[in-house]
Amino acid sequence: MSPVRRCSRTACGRPAVATLTYVYADSTAVLGPLATYAEPHCYDLCAEHSERLTAPRGWEVVRLSDPCAPTRPSGDDLEALANAVREAARPPDRGDGARSGGPRTADPMEVARRGHLRVLRSPDS
Prior knowledge:
20% of the residues lie in helices and 22% in strands. It is an alpha+beta fold. A hairpin with a 4-residue loop joins strand 1 (18-23) and strand 2.
């Protein structure tokens, strides 16, 4: 027997990523992370079948998220990435540190800077 659990759908051999359980008393289908072990009244589903899951009319589908699963990037994540790229591309300020030829006063450990790279002084010296 294979150690990888397979999707319960007929003719689907993909690995299971979620477990489907029905709560008949509440007319609810609960789709959550893959259970630690296979139970007789639960259904293991692959990623494709878990995304396309629908419930009968009058039933509710509750999707429990897996906190360990990777999440898709949100609009905020993409905006933060774009802001970081803009910040890295911005030319350095030609303030007091550039005129005096010395290190910046904001970071006492920084000795020199070349583009996005910095030369840092050892904490011991």
